[in-house]
Design brief:
The chain is of the alpha/beta class. It has 22 helices and 18 strands. The strands form six sheets. Strands 11-14-17-10-18 form a five-stranded parallel sheet, sandwiched between helices. Strands 1-2-4-3 form a four-stranded mixed sheet.
C-alpha cells in the first residue's frame, strides 16, 4: 500500500487539536514534500526523518513522497511531527507489520540516529488522547508528565526501532503506569513561623488565603513585606488533582521544568518590576502564557508595586476579575486561564518612609498616584506593615504558628465556602452577595456611610462585604456580625492614606 494515515496532535495554546498525517508514495523522480501549513521547523523534519530511517536500518523509499498535515488551515510548528511522519513513511513502504494505526497517536522529535527527543505540550496531548480513546506513543522524557493524566493510555519509547517489535507483537511496549497522588510528596514552602512579630500582617495573610482575596502590604523597607508574601503559597489550601493538572498543562506548554514533587505545589511567580505587559499577560506571534497564567491557582507577587509601569498594571484589571486572559492576533486568538491570587508590596513614599521630612505630601501623592484607582479597587485587603517595636528580636517568649497549623484552618474555612456556594468568597458575583452576605438594616446603613466617607466605589463596597463574609467563615459563623464589618473596613489602608494626603494638600 502506497498510502498511510497516522494521527498526531498540534499545539494551539492549551488545546491539542487532531492532525492527520497522510503519507503517499508515488512513482517518479525522488522528492519529499510536506504540505498543510507547516512552519520552518516542520519543513526541516524532512532531513531528520530521512537520516533517522536510514540509521535505524530501514530503507528510505526512492519515490515521490508527499506528506499532508490535515487540516490544512491549522498552523503546524515544532519537531513533534517527526515520529508520525517517519511511521507513515515506513507503513506506506510496507516496512512495518500490518497494524491498525488508527488506534494510535504519535508525537516526538527524532534525532539523526533515530532516538526520540522530548516535545512541548505533552499534558494537553495526553488529555486529548484520553478523550479520543486512542493510545499515545511519546518520547520517554515526556512519559512521567503525561502519566499525570488519569486513564490515559501511554507507551513511552526511546528509539524508533522499538516500534517494529511492538507492532509485530515480539516485544509489547508496556503502558506507563500512573502514580497514585497519595504517594507523591509535595515540596515544602517557606514557613510562616520564620516571621518575627507582625501579628496584624499575619492575620491579613490568613484572611487572604481563606477567601482567596488580593492583598497589598504598605510599609517602610525592612519590615518583612517580601518575607510575608513569600509565605502565602505555603498556607493556601492543598490543590486538588484537577487544579494541579491545569497548572501542569500550562507549565508543559511553557517549557517549565516540572516533576512529580512540584506539580502538586501551588505556583509562586514574582516578576521583576521592569516586566512588560506581554511578559505578564502573555503574547507573541504564537501566543504563549504570561506570568499571570503561570500563576494560575497560585500566587502572583508584585514587589515594589509603584515601580511597575502604570499601563502594565492596568492590563491586569480584566484578568483579575474574569480569571482568564484572551490574546487576539490577526489570524487567531487564544484564551489562557489566569485565576491567580495577587499579593503586592510597596513603600508608602518615594523615600521609603512616611513623614520623614524628606518628601512633601505632593511628592508622596504623586508617587502613590502611579497606581490607578480602578486597579486599587481590585485589591481587597490593604494593610500597613509597621516597623518592629524595640525588643521584639530579643523576646524569646514568642511562639509562632507553623504554616501547617495555619493551612489547616484555611483549609477548613475554604471548605465551608465551597460547601455553601461552590467557590471562594473572593469570586462571588454581584447577585451572590445578596444571598450569602446578608447584613442587618443597621449594619447596611453603617457600611454605606463608611463607604461614602472614604469615597469608595461600588466594587470596593462589594470587596468589604466579601472580606466580612470570610471573617465570619473563619469563626464558623452563619451570619456577618458588626465586628466582622468593622474589621473588614479596617483593611482599607491605601484609601485612608490617599484621603489623608489629599486633605493635607487641600487644607
Amino acid at each position: 500500500m502506497s498510502l498511510a494515515c497516522v494521527y498526531s496532535r498540534a499545539r494551539v495554546g492549551l488545546e491539542s487539536p487532531l492532525v492527520t498525517v497522510e503519507v503517499h508514495l508515488a512513482n517518479g523522480l525522488p522528492a519529499f514534500h510536506i504540505v498543510g501549513l507547516p512552519e520552518a521547523s516542520v519543513k526541516e523534519s524532512k532531513d531528520r526523518v530521512r537520516s533517522a530511517i536510514i540509521n535505524c536500518g530501514y530503507e528510505f523509499p526512492a519515490k515521490r513522497i508527499t506528506i499532508n498535515l490535515a487540516p490544512a488551515d491549522l498552523p503546524k510548528e515544532g519537531g513533534r511531527f517527526d515520529l508520525p511522519i517517519a511511521v507513515g513513511i515506513l507503513a506506506a513502504s510496507q516496512q512495518l507489520p500490518q497494524v491498525d494505526l488508527a488506534q494510535y497517536e504519535f508525537a516526538g522529535e527524532l534525532a539523526l540516529s533515530g532516538e526520540l527527543r522530548a516535545i512541548v505540550g505533552e499534558i494537553p496531548m495526553a488529555m486529548a488522547c484520553c478523550k479520543s480513546g486512542r493510545t499515545v506513543i511519546l518520547p520517554a522524557q515526556n512519559s512521567e508528565q503525561a502519566s499525570w493524566v488519569k486513564k490515559a493510555k501511554i507507551h513511552a519509547i526511546e528509539h524508533l526501532t522499538q516500534l517494529y517489535p511492538h507492532f509485530a507483537r515480539q516485544t509489547v511496549l508496556p503502558f506507563v503506569l500512573e502514580k497514585p497522588i497519595e504517594t507523591i510528596e509535595t515540596k515544602n514552602h517557606l514557613n510562616i513561623s520564620d516571621v518575627i512579630g507582625q501579628p496584624l500582617a499575619k492575620r491579613a495573610l490568613e484572611i487572604s488565603a481563606s477567601g482567596n482575596h488580593n492583598l497589598l502590604f504598605i510599609g517602610p523597607p525592612g519590615t518583612g513585606k517580601t518575607m510575608l508574601a513569600s509565605r502565602l503559597a505555603g498556607i493556601l489550601p492543598k490543590m486538588t488533582e484537577a487544579e494541579a493538572l491545569e497548572v501542569a498543562a500550562i507549565q508543559s506548554i511553557s517549557n517549565q521544568n516540572t516533576n512529580a514533587k512540584s506539580w502538586l505545589t501551588r505556583p509562586f511567580r514574582a516578576p521583576h518590576h521592569t516586566a512588560s505587559s506581554a511578559a505578564l499577560v502573555g503574547g507573541g506571534s504564537q501566543p504563549k502564557p504570561g506570568e499571570i497564567s503561570l500563576a494560575h491557582h497560585g500566587v502572583l507577587f508584585l514587589d515594589e508595586l509603584p515601580e511597575f509601569e502604570r499601563k502594565v498594571l492596568d492590563v491586569l484589571r480584566e484578568p483579575m476579575e474574569s480569571g482568564e486572559v484572551t490574546i487576539s492576533r490577526a489570524m487567531h486568538k487564544q484564551c489562557f486561564p489566569a485565576r491567580f491570587q495577587l499579593i503586592a508590596a510597596m513603600n508608602p513614599s518615594p523615600t521609603g518612609f512616611f513623614n520623614d521630612n524628606r518628601s512633601t505630601p505632593e511628592q508622596v501623592l504623586r508617587y502613590l498616584n502611579r497606581l490607578s484607582g480602578p486597579f486599587l479597587d481590585r485589591i481587597d485587603i490593604q494593610i500597613e506593615v509597621a516597623r518592629l517595636p524595640r525588643g521584639t528580636w530579643a523576646d524569646d517568649t514568642q511562639i509562632n504558628e507553623t504554616s501547617e497549623v495555619v493551612q489547616q484552618r484555611v483549609q477548613a474555612c475554604r471548605q465551608r465556602q465551597i460547601s455553601r456556594q461552590g467557590q471562594a468568597n473572593a469570586h462571588l458575583g454581584t447577585s451572590d452577595l445578596k444571598n450569602y452576605c446578608y447584613l442587618t438594616a443597621g449594619d447596611n446603613e453603617f457600611l454605606e456611610l463608611a463607604v461614602d466617607k472614604l469615597g469608595l466605589s461600588t466594587r470596593a463596597h462589594h470587596k468589604i462585604l466579601k472580606i466580612a463574609r470570610t471573617l465570619a467563615d473563619m469563626v464558623n459563623s452563619e451570619h456577618i456580625s458588626h465586628e466582622h464589618l468593622l474589621e473588614a473596613l479596617s483593611y482599607r489602608a491605601m484609601d485612608r492614606l490617599l484621603k489623608h494626603l489629599s486633605n493635607s494638600i487641600n487644607g
